[in-house]
C-alpha cells in the first residue's frame, strides 16, 4: 500500500514547491494543484515533447507535476478564495511557496485556514523563512545554492574557474526535500495527537545544512574547504581520482580496497593484464593480501599500510588507462572494488544498472495516444511502493471533478477563474 494513501495535499502552484508535491503524490497522496488563470509559467519551459512548443507539452512541467490533479482558481477573487477554503476543509496538508505576506493579504494564511480546518498541516517554503530580515529579497535557484553554500564546494582543482552550480534546480529541490520530511513528520505527529501545525521552511537554511562538511568544518574548526575535481571539498588538497580511460572517457578511482582480500584481487587483476612490471610498488598489494586486517586509520602510522594504499591508487589509475571505461567499471565491480564511470545524464538514464532497477517508468499520455518514459523513483521502499499514478494535469483538467465535489456546478465554476 502506498505510504500516503488517503492523505489529501493541496499545493499552490509555484516552480519552487513543485518537486515536493510530486514526491508526496508519487507516495500515494491525493495532490490537488491550484493554478492561477493562464497556468503556471513553467508550462512554457522547454524542452517540449516532439519539439512542438505548447504549454501542454513541456517536459519540465510533466516531470515536476506527476500524480497530481489540477484546478484553476483566481485567488484574487472573493468567490475563488471561498472555494479554496472549502477545498482546504477536505485536505490534510497545504504546501506553498508564496511570497511572505501574500496569503495573509488574501486572508488565506494559517490563522484563517485553521479556523476552517483546525488540524491542518500548513508548510510554507520561502527563500529565507517568513520572519527573516531578508524575507523580501528576490532569489533564484542559483542564488540559493550560492548564498547557502553548496556552490562553493562544487568545481575544479583549477580555482581560476569559478564555482559551479549543480544542475537541475538543486536549490529548490533541497528545500522541497525538507518540505517532504517535515510533512511526513507532521502527519505522523497528527496521527498520534490529532493536531495540525504551521511549519516555516527556509530554502537558504536547507541549502546551508546540505553542504556536506563545509559548514561544520568552518563552524567547528574555523577552516574553509577547497573545491576539488570530483572529490570531497576539504580544507586541504587531496589526490586526484578522475582518470582518462583507454577509450578517452573518464572514471573515478578514489576508493581503493578496504580488506586484505580486496588488495589481493587488485594485485591479481593487475597481473592478469600484464601490468605488474609497470608498477614495482605492486609488491605492497601482495603484502596487504596477507595481513590480518587493514584500514584507513593506519595510513600515516603504519608504513606498509601507507604504501599499500598508495600502490592501490596507482594500480587503479594504471588499469583504467589500459581499459575502456565500461570494462574497467564492470571488472572492478565484479571484484568488489568501488569505482565509478562518469556518465552524461543521457548515458546514466540508459545505463543497464538504472534500467534493471526500474528507474525508467512508462507513463500513459492518452492525449498523445502513447506512453512517455519518465525518471522513476529516487528510492525503493518495498513496504511502501512508489508509483507515478497519473501524468501531469492539463490546465484546469480536474475543475469539474474536484470543484464539483465541493458543490460548484459549471456556472459557479466560471466565477472562480
Secondary-structure-derived class: alpha/beta
Biggest beta-sheet profile: 6 strands, parallel
- Please trace the helix and strand order, writing H or E for each element: EHEHEHEHHEHHEHHEEEEHHHHEHHEEHH
Strand content: 5-15%
Number of domains: 2
Topology:
Elements: E1 8-12, H1 18-26, E2 30-35, H2 59-64, E3 68-72, H3 78-89, E4 93-96, H4 102-105, H5 110-116, E5 121-126, H6 141-148, H7 170-193, E6 197-202, H8 203-208, H9 214-221, E7 226-228, E8 231-234, E9 242-244, E10 250-252, H10 260-272, H11 283-289, H12 303-321, H13 325-334, E11 340-341, H14 345-350, H15 352-356, E12 360-365, E13 370-375, H16 399-405, H17 410-414
Parallel strand pairs: 1-2, 1-4, 2-3, 4-5, 5-6
Antiparallel strand pairs: 7-8, 9-10, 10-11, 12-13
Short description:
This protein has helices spanning 18-26, 59-64, 78-89, 102-105, 110-116, 141-148, 170-193, 203-208, 214-221, 260-272, 283-289, 303-321, 325-334, 345-350, 352-356, 399-405, 410-414; strands at residues 8-12, 30-35, 68-72, 93-96, 121-126, 197-202, 226-228, 231-234, 242-244, 250-252, 340-341, 360-365, 370-375. With 417 residues, it is of the alpha/beta class.
What would the keywords be for this entry?
417 residues, alpha/beta, Rossmann fold
